[in-house]
Amino acid sequence: MLLSRTILASGILAITAASAQAGKENDTFVWSTSTEMDTADIYYGNQREALINAYAMCDGLLHRDPITNEFQALLATSWEWTDDTTLELELREGVKFHDGTDFDAEDVAYTLNHVADPDSDMKIRVLVDWIDNVEAVDTYKVRINAKRPTPAALQYLTGTSPIYPSGHYADAPVVPGADGAERRDWGAVQPVCTGPYKLAEYVAGESLTLEANPDYFEDSPKGKPSIGTLVYKTIKDPETQIAEVVTGGVDWIWGVPPENAEMLSSMGNLTVVSAPTMRMSFLSLDAAGRTGDTPMTDLKVRQAIAHAINREAIAENLVGDGAEVQKSMCAPVQFGCETDVKQYPYDPEKAKALLAEAGYPDGFSVPFHAYRDRAYSEAVLNDLRAVGIETDLQFLQWRALRPKIVDDEVQIGHLTFGSNGILDVSASTSYYFTGGPDDYARDEEVKAWLEEADRTTDQEERKALYSKALNKIANQAYYIPLFMYGRTYAFNKDLDYPVTPDEMAHFYLAKWK
Amino acid sequence: MSPGRVALRRAIRHGGFWIGGTIIFVIVLMAIFAPLLTPYDPSVQSLSEGFVPPVWAEAGSWEHPLGTDNLGRDYFARLLYGARISLGLGLLTVIISGTIGTAMGITAGYWGGWPDMIINFFITVRLTLPVVLVALVVVALIGSSLWLLILVIGLLLWDRFAIVVRSATQQLAQREYITSARAIGSSTPRILFREILPNITGPLVVVTSIEIAHAILLEAALSFLGLGVQPPDVSWGLMVAEAKAQLLFRPWMIAIPGAALVLLIFAINLVGDALRDVTTPEGKA
Amino acid sequence: MLVYLSKRLLMTFLVIAVTSVIAFLLVHLSGDPAAAMAGEGASQADIETVRETYGFDRPLYVQYLDWVSRVVTGDLGRSTYLRADVTDVLARHLPVTATLGVCALGFALALSIPLGVLAALRPNTMIDRFSLWLAVAGQALPSFLFALGLMYLFGVYLRVLPISGSETWWHFIMPSVALGYYATPAIMRLTRSGMLDVMLSDHVRTARAYGLSPWRVVVRHGLRHAIIPVVSLAAVQLGFMLGGSIVIETIFSLKGIGHLAWESIQRADIEVIQAILLVIAVAYAVLTLLADLLNAALDPRIRIS
């Protein structure tokens, strides 16, 4: 069976010469990154590429304008907190899903109830854990009951939470386990949405094709789609990506290394632009001793590590334009991010002195886990070596690293986090310091402050609590903030497209010049 | 004259032997005397001095004769110290694979029968497994230390040793002087070490040279994929992997370690070919 | 012949069986398959659930037999990352590698057989020495360097060939050359020595004595005999290419099984890795079996020994 299909497919491969031709002439916009998409459903994977596609093909209740950061009406036309834990929303009428069915309150209730269910296997729990249940009060009116006061709720109801039609997950494939046990693979269901683009084809790990939706409703803050076809292609090798964008095989890439930015822009057919992002790069240190009694549990050792790393040099020389040193364990644009905390300036001598005080005059050896942007990790490693800390680099893919984090195996982890674009500290600091599997600090006091701040509705009170937590994190050097990523984008000169500082690509706003 | 001396004389007259031998000799010297040839440590970074071009380019200078890499590390230093690992790894892996393969080959060739069938089976199984993938699986899942790498490559590349030694041993074992040695009661180890082993050195040396090259290439491929040599160690394969992203704009970064690799393998192959011509003169026609 | 065939079949079957055990063990004795499968956001409890659901807590030989019994019914398992049956995933990726392998072999044969014949016709002349040197030099070039060089020259600088992807025949040209040239020296040498042997044989010399032009004699009679070992070598080389295509596929972004294997290794996508190791081993075993059978059919001496 496999053999005959192979032969047949080889034959077809030989005959067909159809390929996605990129560029303005074909009204096909091809963009490429190195990630392999493992699902098109943003609830079941948290890849940035899936989020970008979700914004183009799906709508959430609210829309956050990428340039002004204001909330705008999308599938919901108005919203109101009737009390501390109840949010009522009026919904837009006359919207159709891509499969032709009408959108109404039942769909909202179905989608949010499904993903909020603790057994739903949904990947980013913080987006829906606050929801107790959702009721369809009327055809175009819905009520969301929160478990507790959730000031960041409106953030969570934007593009990161698309709405699907009722019964959407009913056909999820049953995945066989051993001995007759069963699971449903919800993430395998192709999304059906209401957005400016329709999903035309999704090939896991390879590509995702979207076509403009001519029936997209008027008055959407996203506007009407301009470019006819959007194609996402995975190209693993960075230099192949660059070669493709230079020769016009691809119209858009990001992650251009800073040393190539100038040469690329001199090529003439490309626009090369840098922008800051919300993505943090930091070191997680096992202060709580989850991996055992290691040097990381000693405050002086952690502070030594902080002083050993030349963050300015890395941000300026390696990450490039748009990057800046990260001051605190949160993204500066997020609400509640206190940046006036203890800083550890680059001082290798002080680092060595601290190590000696802690009882390691000759340094020590430690495993170092990383999963992305190897050159940055190498730069950090080299700085650590210079003060006597020998590292054993374990460079893995994220999917192989995450189980190790959960399993108490990571003493030093070089991690990054984009907070899913949520502009609230509850999506970043609280993710790492409230006792979950990613929390290697396990500080009860910090946890209490953060949990309270996540639930209080008084803005000033929240800020004060977050400030306390972030100050303690910095004083204890639990984690070491390194830098905020900047990204350099290179794209077809014919593309009229707003580069935004949120590490998102709002292609639905793009047009050919 | 003993066959060894005859071969040596022929080798000295063989052009390929000289060219290849000289190149290898120079590379080995460079590797050994690396600290004398460069003041830099190959893994000390200087982030603000990244991507300095080599001395022959406009912005280059003799301060960094071959330029620097993305982290500001001196390229010439990395080339020299990388030679150590590339060469050292080639030698060590071949010691492991050569020992395993030769032992298996002699056993199969001398005794024949069941041992031969079993060893043939092992060889076939080994040939059926895709080497690169198996190495990747092991290294990815266990972790990539230099010693593990040497062990894994050594444990995977013994097949040609086994095949060649087996056939050479088979041919020898049937010769009269072996059968007569047995007849007068010589013990087996004595026969193996005094009669067989010295007489298979010809093909053994040829295979060794091929397999050193093979091991170096396999390490280069693994490092290229990111699962070979890890920083702060440096090998030529790793240098090519790191320079890959600069292919379009700074081709010299790939060209330099690439040329070094090609030159080394070429030299090894030349010497290997020369040895083959010299030990089996009939085969040249 | 029948005896030979059954012996070889038995051998092939045993080899495949042992390889399957090795493939299974390699993958399962590393890390924790349950943690890898549970993936993102999984807590300790989640991982234990996965362990029980998928039976990772059973003894290894039980898991192995379970896997084998599924494989022989055509169920190669499920990819947790790609959310699809491994059989479907392989069916999508195998054609690319198969096409690449065949084209690479075609290139190697097209280059090395004529060179080998030419070298044999004019032994120890410039042409002979040149082709031997070319062969030696070619083998010194690592395939990934050659591939990058080709990509740069023809893809970016001259812009005559596409750089990545596998949509058209043009996309396979550079990868085939990069993958195939490594087999060239071996095939060339074998052709050359085979032709030399044949040319010295009685019936060819007789034919030439009769005045038949060397070309006709050589090509029609000589090649036919010299080709036998070459075919067998070619089959083996094809097997190597199937297993060794991963670097080329990565560089040119060809979505073949080498590329898939590499990705699956990085993602700890266990079922896929196991299946690919098995498939490649089976392909190689089958190819060598065919090569041996072909040899035996054409050359009776082999059957008897």
Automatic annotation (TrEMBL), chain B:
<protein>
    <submittedName>
        <fullName>Glutathione transport system permease protein GsiD</fullName>
    </submittedName>
</protein>
<feature type="transmembrane region" description="Helical">
    <location>
        <begin position="249"/>
        <end position="271"/>
    </location>
</feature>
<dbReference type="Pfam" id="PF12911">
    <property type="entry name" value="OppC_N"/>
</dbReference>
<dbReference type="GO" id="GO:0015031">
    <property type="term" value="P:protein transport"/>
</dbReference>
<dbReference type="GO" id="GO:0005886">
    <property type="term" value="C:plasma membrane"/>
</dbReference>
<feature type="transmembrane region" description="Helical">
    <location>
        <begin position="204"/>
        <end position="229"/>
    </location>
</feature>
<dbReference type="GO" id="GO:0055085">
    <property type="term" value="P:transmembrane transport"/>
</dbReference>
<keyword id="KW-0571">Peptide transport</keyword>
<dbReference type="Pfam" id="PF00528">
    <property type="entry name" value="BPD_transp_1"/>
</dbReference>
<dbReference type="InterPro" id="IPR035906">
    <property type="entry name" value="MetI-like_sf"/>
</dbReference>
<feature type="transmembrane region" description="Helical">
    <location>
        <begin position="15"/>
        <end position="37"/>
    </location>
</feature>
<feature type="transmembrane region" description="Helical">
    <location>
        <begin position="131"/>
        <end position="158"/>
    </location>
</feature>
<keyword id="KW-0813">Transport</keyword>
<dbReference type="GO" id="GO:0015833">
    <property type="term" value="P:peptide transport"/>
</dbReference>
<feature type="domain" description="ABC transmembrane type-1">
    <location>
        <begin position="83"/>
        <end position="272"/>
    </location>
</feature>
<feature type="transmembrane region" description="Helical">
    <location>
        <begin position="87"/>
        <end position="111"/>
    </location>
</feature>
<comment type="similarity">
    <text>Belongs to the binding-protein-dependent transport system permease family.</text>
</comment>
<keyword id="KW-0812">Transmembrane</keyword>
<dbReference type="InterPro" id="IPR025966">
    <property type="entry name" value="OppC_N"/>
</dbReference>
<keyword id="KW-0653">Protein transport</keyword>
<dbReference type="InterPro" id="IPR050366">
    <property type="entry name" value="BP-dependent_transpt_permease"/>
</dbReference>
<keyword id="KW-1003">Cell membrane</keyword>
Automatic annotation (TrEMBL), chain C:
<feature type="transmembrane region" description="Helical">
    <location>
        <begin position="133"/>
        <end position="157"/>
    </location>
</feature>
<feature type="transmembrane region" description="Helical">
    <location>
        <begin position="226"/>
        <end position="252"/>
    </location>
</feature>
<keyword id="KW-0813">Transport</keyword>
<dbReference type="InterPro" id="IPR035906">
    <property type="entry name" value="MetI-like_sf"/>
</dbReference>
<protein>
    <submittedName>
        <fullName>Glutathione transport system permease protein GsiC</fullName>
    </submittedName>
</protein>
<dbReference type="InterPro" id="IPR000515">
    <property type="entry name" value="MetI-like"/>
</dbReference>
<dbReference type="Pfam" id="PF19300">
    <property type="entry name" value="BPD_transp_1_N"/>
</dbReference>
<dbReference type="Pfam" id="PF00528">
    <property type="entry name" value="BPD_transp_1"/>
</dbReference>
<comment type="similarity">
    <text>Belongs to the binding-protein-dependent transport system permease family.</text>
</comment>
<dbReference type="GO" id="GO:0005886">
    <property type="term" value="C:plasma membrane"/>
</dbReference>
<keyword id="KW-1003">Cell membrane</keyword>
<keyword id="KW-0812">Transmembrane</keyword>
<feature type="transmembrane region" description="Helical">
    <location>
        <begin position="169"/>
        <end position="190"/>
    </location>
</feature>
<dbReference type="GO" id="GO:0055085">
    <property type="term" value="P:transmembrane transport"/>
</dbReference>
<keyword id="KW-1133">Transmembrane helix</keyword>
<feature type="transmembrane region" description="Helical">
    <location>
        <begin position="272"/>
        <end position="294"/>
    </location>
</feature>
<feature type="domain" description="ABC transmembrane type-1">
    <location>
        <begin position="94"/>
        <end position="291"/>
    </location>
</feature>
<keyword id="KW-0472">Membrane</keyword>
<dbReference type="InterPro" id="IPR045621">
    <property type="entry name" value="BPD_transp_1_N"/>
</dbReference>
<feature type="transmembrane region" description="Helical">
    <location>
        <begin position="98"/>
        <end position="121"/>
    </location>
</feature>
